[in-house]
Amino acid sequence: MLKVENLYKNFGNVKAVEGISFEVKKGQVFGLLGPNGAGKSTTISIISTLLKPSGGDVLFEGNSVLDNPASIRRKLGVVPQDIALYPTLTGYDNLSFWGSIYGLRGSQLKTRIEDVSDIIGLNGRIKDKVEKYSGGMKRRLNIGAALLHKPELLIMDEPTVGIDTQSRSHILDTVLELNRQGITIIYTSHYMDEVEYLCNELCIMDEGKIIASGTRQELVELVREKTRINIKLNKMDEDVLTVLRGIEGVVDAKKDEDSIALFGSNADVLLADIISRVSEKGWLIETIDVKKPNLKAVFLHLTGKALRD
Ligand SMILES: Nc1ncnc2c1ncn2[C@@H]1O[C@H](COP(=O)(O)OP(=O)(O)OP(=O)(O)O)[C@@H](O)[C@H]1O
Ligand SMILES: [Mg+2]
After folding, report:
1. Which ligand is nearest to the CA of 206?
2. How far apart are CA 133 and CA 22, in angstroms?
3. What's the domain range around 244?
């Protein structure tokens, strides 16, 4: 659906984007993960034809958006990082404003506003002024504005920054629901847990470059970090250690202060095998705790620094 090819963007001496390429397939939730200043918003502005690249191209359904910006604009919805709403107008009037920009009028516009208010969960408050909204409600309205013209591709630039947990989980559910309805989504974030939860495929960006891409599983495999399982049994001697070490898939086992740390790669299989072996022996598990490698570990591994949080 969308191909970004060797994209560059300089702002004077600042190299905001330095030769990035990726492909988003129809039906995906595609993640763009990266810390402050990675170049995520710049990339989005180029895709949505608000900015011209210094080099490279963006192909939407096979055609360059540089040659024909209208072709993508009609099918694209963008949720900007900075909220673009009129605080003194009601939610309804804000949607009405954005709808008219997309060419919607009359009853068609009214129906779409009602549908969209439903999707973003604001129908009860849509006639209130935006200045009375919480941060989360503003974010949701901001998403609504991008949905009015039924886009096929929706780009969301950090849509959950600075909001309460409830609004955040509402937004994440909305993303999945929109995707189920057939909308392809590019989701930008610096929260790796969101990207892990939502995205089939992702790119990790840092300082204008893509430092890793693939499925979540492929990325996690980049770090040779193993799943770690800490287990505490009612019996904790050398005999236990020997038995646990003998389980297939356990590559290492060592005694920590009052528990045993086991390392291996396939967390779920490993966990099942450990539990069944322990119960065969008639031992009792007092505590068990599983730590799988995550995208945070991937980022740290690749850059030597942490994401924002
Ligand atoms: N209009 C501009 N003029 C000059 N420099 C800019 C402009 N827009 C972005 N930059 C610079 O380009 C780099 C990438 O910025 P960008 O906003 O794309 O990053 P980001 O990944 O979206 O970061 P954040 O997570 O903070 O939103 C930064 O160094 C930024 O200061
Ligand atoms: Mg940004």
Report:
1. 1
2. 37
3. 226-292
